[in-house]
UniProtKB/TrEMBL annotation:
The keyword Glycosyltransferase does not apply. Pfam families: NB-ARC, TPR_10, TPR_12. This is NB-ARC domain-containing protein. InterPro entries: GGCT-like, NB-ARC, NLR-like, P-loop_NTPase, TPR-like_helical_dom_sf, TPR_rpt. Keywords: TPR repeat. It comes from the Eukaryota. The keyword Mitochondrion does not apply. It comes from Stephanodiscus triporus. CDD domains: GGCT_like (cd06661). TPR repeats lie at residues 789-822. Residues 272-438 form the NB-ARC domain.
Length: 1219
């Protein structure tokens, strides 16, 4: 420090300091005084480096006469306290640091970087230099009129350190390392002594505080200096232990996923101020609330660029955390939330966590955050706008802002800012910055820029594309305007569709010829990209498109050449000029004939031939138009060197013209640009390109439902398939290729359902398949009828997954009518009908369908190819035996073991093993059941990979919960078993909430996250019963109340459902038990009343239904009830079986007579079916279970008709007295 004092030269304005020239000179540079660290005020280059990027600097001191003191007083919204200075007449002191020479043009960039600070000019007379100090670089020629700046914290950031904004060890290290490198220990010590605001709130935030040598340069010297002056620095009194450091590092702070700042961003000051003012207006009244502003406008108007600029201008001045989310779909939001948690909070966002858990954790962290935050939901579609509230905290725990960009304007939304195109002066400035000043200099270019901006409607996307052309092709604005005007006059700009799109198309009409000049293939690729998905564009996709185009062109050329040869062989030689001209036309790429399709080319060639040849020519052309493969077969394509080279070239050219934006190896094309490309094409060209896209997708679409290895690669192409299918509906595609598109759409739906559990999206895709097949000219042909049957079959499964059993049944019956000649398909359809009847609890009907399916499978010639399906049918037959009362567990086990022996697919094996576990649990073989369930879970995880939130995994977890619950009844360690049961059921609930999220009520809050689905209510019930057993009454009540809410909503849609009615009664019974245990007698009584009212209400509905269908004979009901009781007695009481048999036969004869005279209706039908079943099984050994099942079916019908029935075989309860 003494050396530094001795070296002070006390420079005056009128004389040169030793080694520094002070003279009057043109101002090319300005100067910034910094605190020698690399994080405050600039990214300074430390001395001693030889890189050309070194910023010249000189060690200097601002004297106390300037009236400022350096302090730790800058409150960063990222959660710490940084260096600053404060104006103080009484505390002013010398401030040592480094004066850096900065190009004048860069000052604005420093201002943007130093948010939260303002520049204050420092007169040269208040500076002292130290030329002999270690770090001073080459001479600084400082003019006497030079501008010297010091960054000073603005008042809103001028605050001392506290517990939530400590000093950071890493920050202090960086500053003192700079001092040591510029001026040695003396400069570092002088810095410590001349700085105020040192605090005991001091956080050692380095990655390994116990091993400082790994991450802290010169840590020993720094710690020694801090310790030497510990009374000032509070080095020995630091209050934040390592636990605090860990929590601090897990706070979400900083920025995440903000797009790269646009260096050419221009204007929009009014809009930026408007966003800020709207946020401010929403915060009036002093309440800390979460404010939302929506920025709406058409595509290409610059919504994303505007909001990104807002983020950069206000971080970290106003926000300590800025998060950018892709809000195009709910799935994209959840994906971003998961990655956000992993990146910013240092938390392992385990794939096992459900979407709700991830979202809830982020919301909680935001609610508890100590820093103001901003969340941007970019490109929100109308379908996701209403759901955005689910992704932000509720209430006013902290100050949070939400920005939304969207093309959709929400009605009655006062927070929406409608963004229009740029003002003319802003548009001209954007052109100047983007195209380069050398292309905009001069009056002629200035005038051209004004005219061009007007022609382009001041649309930012169009202006940026025009500027990219100028910059890429080294064309001045006046010349570009000339070319642009010429292109419009020539009619090349064909787009006249939608606001703003015209200017983009006009730009393209000029841009495309330049791209074609550089590389013809790239132009073709750009056209093709307009028909695929806008995102996840890869070089592999480009290679497939290029290859498909090459193959298609070759086939067309070959067919046309063969056609020409055929005509020549029939008609003899033609004039040479016609032959040569025709061959040339026929061999040209269709893209090179934008106004002449290949059929017309063929006609030109044969124009001078006889009319009979013309007819043949038209026939050949018609045959060519239907070129397509009837089968959707995908093969792994090996690409040639040509395709690899052209895909790389196209990728680079599209990037250079700003037509393709690339991030992490995946490209995106703006939607407006893609729409403009399509609109610039003639109808013939569009048909040509969509045809190639279809062929390309067929070549790379590797999806096979029974091959899970194909799922991952197919998911990458799923959006492209859906987009191509959507565009295909707009064009008159030939029938065979339309059939291919329909099958692509069907397979996309199957993939969505199987791999993603996205049932709504799957349903849409398959319904599109059916629409395409209906419009086909081949609709009545066998191949089309078969495709429709297959689509209906898949649609039925989607309906079944969503609990819409009637819709599923309708689809299956229609599909069976369309394709009943195919034995394999018929067996599959009957199998699916059997599953459907199991879901409906019609076990006899299920058995019938499944048996028919199995008989057909066993009668097929190709036994080996159908083993897997036979295995699945045996599995479902076993499920029927398990569901019967009493269950036939031994029969079920035999069937399942047979099915396991036939199964070759991972998924089917896992399902069969899971069902075996269910059987063995009920048989009491718990250890064996546990082993089965572990095997099933392992197989499912192998099958689904990263997608651990799958419905089948939930089913295994449910059975594991049932197993643990069974163990709790048999083991001494009851508490541990109940804990395991709770964990398994809760895991099942987490997955089912995720899978059935589509069934969640619209506008639901975070407290009402349960989808309205019966499977969700089932697992909630199990959790409620476990909680009650554990005496966790609050948790039990929460689960049972949630179950109750779902069942009430389900009852609204199915008021006569016996299953839902019984579930509601059971739920109310358990709720009453829980309230009794909690000592709430009033609520318990209320639940009893509610249960009684439900029984009366359900009975009245059934009575009303009876009146609607002409009330059934009371005699028939009484006889049916008596026969049922006798049948149960015969099956269960073996003490006098022969007597019981005779009495039952007599009663059955009476019932048969009654059914003959009864009016047609549900009761008569049920009695007849009961009679048929009993007469079939009465004398069969082992027929007891079938008789009991028939009794159960009849009981349900009797109850539905208001007859009180119970299952006691005591005569008083069933004959002499209704109970």
């Amino acid at each position: 420090m003494d050396m530094l004092n001795r070296d002070r030269s006390h420079v005056q304005v009128e004389e040169a300091a030793a080694g520094f020239d002070i003279e009057q000179q043109p101002i090319h540079y300005e100067y910034i005084f910094g605190f020698v660290n690399t994080t405050t005020h600039a990214t300074w280059q430390t001395p001693g480096k030889e890189e050309s990027s070194v910023i010249p600097g000189a060690v200097a001191t601002i004297t106390k006469c300037f009236g400022y003191k350096r302090k730790w007083n800058f409150r960063s919204f990222t959660g710490f306290t940084a260096l600053g200075v404060v104006s103080s007449e009484y505390e002013a002191s010398d401030i040592n640091g480094v004066l850096f020479q900065v190009p004048r043009s860069e000052i604005s960039n420093f201002d943007r970087r130093e948010v939260g600070y303002e520049r204050v000019e420092v007169p040269l007379k208040f500076l002292e230099f130290h030329p002999r100090v270690l770090g001073s670089t080459s001479q600084l020629n400082i003019g006497s009129n030079a501008k010297i700046w010091l960054y000073v914290p603005i008042p809103s950031h001028n605050m001392s350190a506290d517990e939530n904004h400590p000093l950071l060890q890493s920050y202090v290290d960086t500053v003192l390392q700079g001092c040591l490198e510029w001026g040695g220990e003396d400069m570092a010590e002088d810095f410590i002594l001349s700085t105020g605001g040192w605090s005991c709130f001091y956080l050692n935030d380095t990655p390994s505080s116990r091993r400082p040598w790994l991450f802290r340069k010169q840590y020993a010297t720094i710690d020694e200096l801090l310790s030497k002056h510990s009374q000032l620095t509070h080095y020995g009194d630091r209050r934040h232990p390592e636990e605090f450091a860990s929590a601090f590092n897990q706070r979400m702070k900083g920025t995440w996923s903000i797009p790269r700042r646009n260096p050419n961003f221009t204007g929009r000051d009014h809009e930026l101020d408007e966003i800020q003012s709207r946020f401010s207006a929403m915060e009036m009244g002093g309440q800390q609330i979460i404010s939302k502003v929506e920025v709406a406008g058409m595509g290409g108007v610059g919504k994303t660029q505007l909001v990104a600029e807002y983020c950069y201008r206000h971080f970290p001045r106003d926000y300590g955390l800025v998060v950018w989310l892709n809000a195009e779909t709910i799935d994209s939001l959840i994906t971003d939330f998961r990655q956000l948690l992993a990146d910013l909070a240092n938390v392992d966002a385990d794939m096992d966590k459900s979407s709700d858990e991830i979202v809830e954790e982020v919301r909680t962290r935001l609610f508890r955050s100590n820093v103001p935050w901003l969340i941007v939901f970019d490109n929100a579609e109308s379908s996701s706008l209403e759901a955005l509230a689910h992704f932000v905290p509720r209430g006013a725990g902290t100050k949070g802002h939400v920005l939304v960009t969207t093309r959709h304007v929400i009605a009655d939304s006062s927070g929406t800012l409608i963004l229009g195109c740029l003002r003319t002066n802003e548009a001209i400035e954007l052109l100047r910055r983007s195209a380069g000043s050398h292309n905009m200099d001069g009056s002629s270019n200035a005038a051209a820029a004004e005219v061009l901006s007007e022609k382009l409607g001041n649309l930012p996307l169009a202006l940026s594309m025009a500027a990219a052309y100028m910059r890429r092709c080294e064309v001045e604005c006046s010349e570009y305007l000339h070319r642009y005007t010429a292109s419009e006059k020539s009619g090349q700009s064909l787009l006249r569709r939608g606001p703003g799109a015209t200017s983009v198309a006009s730009i393209l009409s000029l841009l495309l010829p330049k791209i074609e000049e550089e590389n013809q293939i790239t132009s073709e690729v750009l056209h093709l990209l307009s028909f695929v998905g806008p995102d996840v564009i890869t070089k592999s996709l480009l290679r497939n498109l290029i290859s498909a185009k090459k193959n298609y062109d070759e086939k067309i050329s070959e067919r046309n050449t063969n056609t020409l040869k055929k005509q020549l062989s029939v008609n003899g030689p033609l004039p040479a000029c016609i032959i040569l001209g025709g061959v040339a036309l026929l061999l040209m790429s269709p893209r090179m004939l934008p106004a002449i399709d290949m059929q017309r080319a063929a006609l030109i060639v044969l124009a001078s031939t006889a009319s009979s040849i013309l007819v043949l020519s038209m026939g050949a052309a018609s045959e060519k138009a239907n070129t397509s493969s009837n089968k959707l077969t995908s093969t792994s394509r090996s690409f040639s060197a040509f395709e690899y080279e052209q895909s790389d070239v196209s990728w680079d050219i599209l990037k250079s013209f700003s037509l393709l934006s690339v991030k992490e190896g995946k490209g995106s094309v703006h939607r407006l640009l893609a729409a403009a490309m399509r609109s610039c094409q003639s109808q013939e060209e569009s048909l040509y390109y969509i045809t190639i896209c279809i062929d390309a997708m067929v070549s790379c679409w590797m999806f096979k439902a029974d091959s899970t290895e194909s799922w991952k690669s197919s998911l990458q192409l799923l959006d492209h398939v859906k987009t191509i299918v959507a565009h295909s509906q707009e064009y008159n595609i030939d029938s065979l290729r339309l059939l291919t598109v329909a099958r692509l759409s069907k397979e996309a739906g199957v993939l969505s359902a199987m791999a993603l559990n996205a049932f709504v999206e799957a349903q849409v895709s398959i319904e599109v398949t059916l629409k395409l097949l209906e419009r086909s000219t081949m609709a009545k042909k066998p191949e089309c009828r078969k495709a429709k049957a297959e689509a209906l079959y898949e649609l039925s499964k989607i309906h079944r997954y969503q609990g819409r059993y009637d819709d599923a049944n309708k689809c299956l019956m229609e599909s069976l009518d369309l394709n009943n000649a195919d034995g394999f398909f018929t067996a599959d359809t009957l199998h699916e009908l059997g599953i459907l009847e199991i879901k409906r609890h019609n076990l006899d009907a299920a058995t019938s369908f499944l048996q028919q399916s199995l008989e057909i499978r066993r009668g097929l010639d190709d036994r080996n190819s159908d083993q897997v399906n036979a295995s699945a049918t045996l599995h479902q037959l076993a499920a029927v035996h398990v569901a019967r009362k009493p269950p036939s567990l031994d029969k079920a086990k035999v069937l399942l073991q047979e099915a396991l022996g036939l199964s070759r697919q991972i998924g089917q094996r896992a399902a069969t093993i899971k069902q075996l576990a269910r059987v063995t649990i009920r048989q009491g073989f718990l250890d064996q059941a546990e082993s089965y369930l572990d095997q099933a879970l392992e197989l499912y995880r192998e099958l689904y990979g990263d997608n651990k939130l799958h419905i089948n995994i939930a089913a295994v977890r449910f059975q594991q919960g049932a197993l643990a619950l069974q163990r709790s009844r048999l083991t001494n360690d009851k508490a541990q078993s109940l804990d395991n049961a709770w964990l398994c059921f809760h895991d099942c609930l987490r997955i089912r909430r995720h899978v059935y999220a589509y069934a969640s009520p619209l506008g639901h809050s975070s407290e009402d996250t349960d989808p309205i689905h019966l499977e969700v209510s089932c697992v909630l019930h199990e959790l409620g019963s476990v909680g009650l057993t554990q005496k966790r009454f609050t948790q039990s009540m929460k689960m049972l109340e949630a179950e109750r809410a779902i069942l009430v909503r389900l009852a609204e849609t199915a008021p006569r459902s016996e299953r839902i009615y019984q579930a509601r009664l059971t739920n109310l019974t358990w709720l009453r038990k829980c309230t009794k245990e909690m000592g709430d007698d009033i609520k318990s009584a209320s639940l009893s009343d509610e249960r009684l009212a439900l029984k009366i209400q359900f009975g009245l509905k059934c009575k009303s239904e009876r009146n609607d269908v002409s009330c059934e004979s009371n005699v028939l009901k009484e006889k049916a009830k008596r026969c049922r009781w006798m049948a149960r007695r015969f099956a269960l009481d073996k003490s006098d079986s022969e007597t019981h048999r005779k009495e039952l036969l007599k009663c059955l004869a009476e019932l048969k007579d009654e059914t003959r005279t009864a009016s047609p209706g549900p009761m008569a039908e049920a009695a007849s079916q009961f009679l048929e079943t009993l007469l079939r099984w009465l004398d069969q050994s082992g027929g007891g279970s079938e008789i009991l099942a028939a009794c159960d079916s009849l009981r349900n019908v009797l109850r539905a008709h208001g007859v009180q029935v119970n299952d006691s075989i005591h005569p008083r309860n069933n004959i002499t007295k209704d109970s």
